[in-house]
Structures
1.
Amino acid sequence: QQQVKQSPQSLIVQKGGISIINCAYENTAFDYFPWYQQFPGKGPALLIAIRPDVSEKKEGRFTISFNKSAKQFSLHIMDSQPGDSATYFCAATFNDYKLSFGAGTTVTVRA
Amino acid sequence: EAQVTQNPRYLITVTGKKLTVTCSQNMNHEYMSWYRQDPGLGLRQIYYSMNVEVTDKGDVPEGYKVSRKEKRNFPLILESPSPNQTSLYFCASSYRGGAYEQYFGPGTRLTVT
């Protein structure tokens, strides 16, 4: 049973457009929410992360929005570029040891 | 270069033949973890280790064993592999735990026939 539900499974966006990936969770004990980016043939790599005491975090073109009351968080990729084409995973942890991942979203940016 | 290495990268084996996938990190990280990646299911944690001789089950531990005798190494053992363990496996390490940046290895593609 997936503890973090991620949608959509895939999305296609034009270059310069905005990509939005959503994640939802049930366990209110979760206290750290990272996003990982994975390119084909590679292991995932940390992209950006947020803690629930913050509603938004921005790093370059990547922004996490966090809604604690709705138990949802999302990744926005602004000005999407072909190099952003990858699979994105949201994740959550609460005891600092176990990490639960979403099912992943494959993003394709068309030039 | 800071890295996590896994061996082998590709493995085809038969049902029931014991195998070990090695994982090593050179960053002196306390935390190491194994994941399997399957289409539509994302990454699922198999086992993790908080430090030497300290391990615990993740979400899908059945059919797997681990050990952590040295800080740098965290091998994954399949004592009697079955076809449902065909998957892409990743080892990862971090400074202390899941709430710290995890560094992933390149992956091991395992096929059990």
Note: Chain B touches chain A through 27 residues (CB under 8 Å).
2.
Amino acid sequence: AQRVTQPEKLLSVFKGAPVELKCNYSYSGSPELFWYVQYSRQRLQLLLRHISRESIKGFTADLNKGETSFHLKKPFAQEEDSAMYYCALGGDWANNLFFGTGTRLTVIP
Amino acid sequence: KAGVTQTPRYLIKTRGQQVTLSCSPISGHRSVSWYQQTPGQGLQFLFEYFSETQRNKGNFPGRFSGRQFSNSRSEMNVSTLELGDSALYLCASSTQGSGKNIQYFGAGTRLSVL
């Protein structure tokens, strides 16, 4: 069965400090992993996806199939990074995403 | 390009009533997925429509149903409302019928059942 686990509900870091939001998944097929972000009073939006292998707003995430993880990292947190972050797993063919419970990141000035 | 539009933004209903929510996808997108978001359960997949056909369904009772029209607009219906149906209902659209495509979300419809 598909499952996404985000162990931290809340995470607080100081501005300029590194940040890592953890995500582990369970899926027997070929996983497609995403990070979605929801800023205050805004809609849920894609931050990045593993097949793009790009850095968005300084964030990166590497798919580790051995550890079934897709952790989100940023070397220097900014105040504008404060938001709710969701890790999501896409199925092989249909447009249904399995979401983790989310991590609320607060960057302290 | 206009984003995903959901109407209405807010709804208040009483137990036993039924409700219909609407979603207009981004122009050119043929796939529409629906999700329920609650504080306790988080974001849960309801169902997905592609080219007017329901292709996938989550683990929700039959009171939850939907449909998609030829212009890709989609509606979701909940019958015999229960208190536990109070939630934010999100709609997302995508270009094609594959889990490997980016989904674009609407702002949601917040349903309160009294």
Note: Chain A is about 0% helix and 45% strand.
3.
Amino acid sequence: EAQVTQNPRYLITVTGKKLTVTCSQNMNHEYMSWYRQDPGLGLRQIYYSMNVEVTDKGDVPEGYKVSRKEKRNFPLILESPSPNQTSLYFCASSSTPSSPPQPQHFGDGTRLSIL
Amino acid sequence: AQSVAQPEDQVNVAEGNPLTVKCTYSVSGNPYLFWYVQYPNRGLQFLLKYITGDNLVKGSYGFEAEFNKSQTSFHLKKPSALVSDSALYFCAVSPLGTYKYIFGTGTRLKVLA
């Protein structure tokens, strides 16, 4: 089954404790992206990747890091989490970053609570 | 600044009636436009997209959207709403020549039996 898998689905942690949210897709997609969803703000793009070793900032990259060492994986790293990063996070992928862009496939989300 | 507006937080419609969920955008050039739907505790699912061509785009589950360049709008429509259409709907744009996506704040659709 074609899917985007995020882990963990839920995490409660404390300020300053480094964490990684993993994202993996099995569709051989080139394009991957991370979003955060907050009430009243919709989805905001954090980082995206056009292919292996090619990443760029979205609209809200502060406090986050990403890497794309393999095509299928695109982990989101919070080096020193803070309470304002409490949010619902989504990973997404699409077949190609080229114009026109293709529809994105989304994971089921990771709910992070940072105390 | 580039932005997407969904002016209604919630839309209520009776089952069987037509529905419209509004979206306007402020993006330079001709963007690519998308609608996604989100059900509780799930990720977003693609409904339809506008790339170029016919201003009326048909998508999944009987949904369609009308692109209006002069009004910079991309409203989502369905001729006859179902209770199962109740969900959160997001409009998104990808500005031409970028790999970025800008989403609206979402509109919660409630279809009443």
Note: The longest strand of chain A covers residues 42-51.
4.
Amino acid sequence: NAGVTQTPKFRILKIGQSMTLQCTQDMNHNYMYWYRQDPGMGLKLIYYSVGAGITDKGEVPNGYNVSRSTTEDFPLRLELAAPSQTSVYFCASSYGGDRGSPLHFGNGTRLTVT
Amino acid sequence: GENVEQHPSTLSVQEGDSAVIKCTYSDSASNYFPWYKQELGKGPQLIIDIRSNVGEKKDQRIAVTLNKTAKHFSLHITETQPEDSAVYFCASGGLGGGADGLTFGKGTHLIIQP
């Protein structure tokens, strides 16, 4: 099993450009999450999904959108990139949604907006 | 919502010595406490977790202790080795909560001095 796979690994965007961060998992997990990680700030939840067709906002959703058309894929969309979105983005999945289940993380996408 | 405080932010120990990282949480309903290790350029990986019906759990050189009354839990690493150098995150969650994953501390950068 590959686990959680994120692409691309690195990306540089100009202000106002858009992009999609891809995330796919092969563990048949229903629950998927997007976090951003800023230096010294830990992990902040952007969006999450409890299954195909269902998504919900996390702590810092502004400037992002998500979709969940299949169990495997959970892409994160940035429509109008801003310097404040410079960060490392992690996708994660878990088998249970009761907040008592371990998260499995991808290796992240490092995004720079200039 | 839940708040998790983690200390210290940086910890430097001599190889072979022990390291202790401490976390406190605010939500008395939390009952799941995982620890994640993040190596440079990678996503966080679960190294050990504990549930509130257990006071201590060990896995080789790693142990976690939980004090539910005081709402704090700690990670103990004995006989530290160079490969233990990484950023460590504590987190809290719990059965019966929402499906929005875990609440993370801000991380501890552990440095093992040769």
Note: The CA atoms of residues 1 and 98 of chain B lie 11 Å apart.
